[in-house]
Amino acid sequence: MIRGLLLALALGAATFADDAPSVVSVKAHATPDTTTIGTRVRYEVEVSAPPGMEIMVAQPAERIGDMEIVDFGTEAPSPTKDGRVVFRRWWQLVAWSPGHHLLVSPKVQYRAPGGELADAPTDDVGVTVTSLLERAPQAADIRDIKPPEPIPVDWRPYEWLAGGAIALALLAYAVYFALARRRRVVAAPPPPPPHVVAVAALDALRARALVEKGALKEFYSALSDIVRRYLEDRFGVRAPEMTTEEFLLATSRDGRLAAAHRRLLGDFLVESDLVKFARHVPTIADSERAFTAARRFIDETTPVTREAA
User: Fold this and answer.
1) Which candidate, 68, 123, 134, 167, has a CA 20 to 30 Å from the CA of 232?
2) Residues 98, 213 within the same domain
3) Residues 119 and 198 in one domain
């Protein structure tokens, strides 16, 4: 589970009143609560809190319980008649084994303005998954024999002739181009590897001394951009155009990043989002830890060359 995904609940210019209830309630739902293998289940966590309360909900990377995450989303906060704000977050889950599956709700934390971070009580729900074969054990699927397929036309001789003609045309063009060219064009040097570019950018960021100047938000924004550009150049992931949640889900599906690297990167990106979008004020030690985590991620994901091996 990736800790610390910030979900801010703020409605208009409302502030947290002293006489407003301070308890944050969490309620989970699973629809339907009885399903079959491979059928999607909508799992929703509803958080009710006073206006102005800061809410943080942990974001699972791949599974909730033993059910696989195939989609997720967030609904806009909505006020209630009693003056509270309700935030809803949902996941689409799929189970691949029958039985009763317990869905332990993700960790929810809250903090009042000027207060300390506290844990909200969680709400666990269960989903029963059955097998279609168990529902209809006597069912049979007997079909008539299909008629024989017609003998396909062997296009290979024609393909060979077409390929030979294309090869001859390309060869003639190459000979003509080589004879007509009077000078050799010096090939441009290859671009530097992604990790070299990223390390140089980190050194340049360190030289700007943004932390010492108190520009922590600018420091975290630049540090996050360096890591996201490295991810795009190194792994082909459109990280600059993705949110943190979309990126983590994409890398968990295709396996481009190891689990340890996803956790390290998830903690770093979430902390950067807290500073950039949630007015979180980090300490100098926090900024140094974030810089070290970014450098460590780049070093550990740098491809090993034959010379280095």
Assistant:
1) 68
2) no
3) no
To the question of pTM greater than 0.85 for the whole model, the response is no
pLDDT for residue 166 is more than 90:
yes
Q: Answer yes or no: is pLDDT of 213 > 70.
A: yes
Confidence at residue 197, expressed as pLDDT on a 0 to 100 scale: 93
Please identify, among 85, 115, 131, the residue that sits at the C-terminal boundary of a domain: 131
* Residue whose structure tokens are 């950018």: 201
The predicted structure's pLDDT at residue 37: 86
Whether 199 has a pLDDT exceeding 50, the answer reads yes
pLDDT for position 255? 66
Q: Choose the final residue of a domain: 131, 152, 171.
A: 131
Parent domain of 113: 6-131
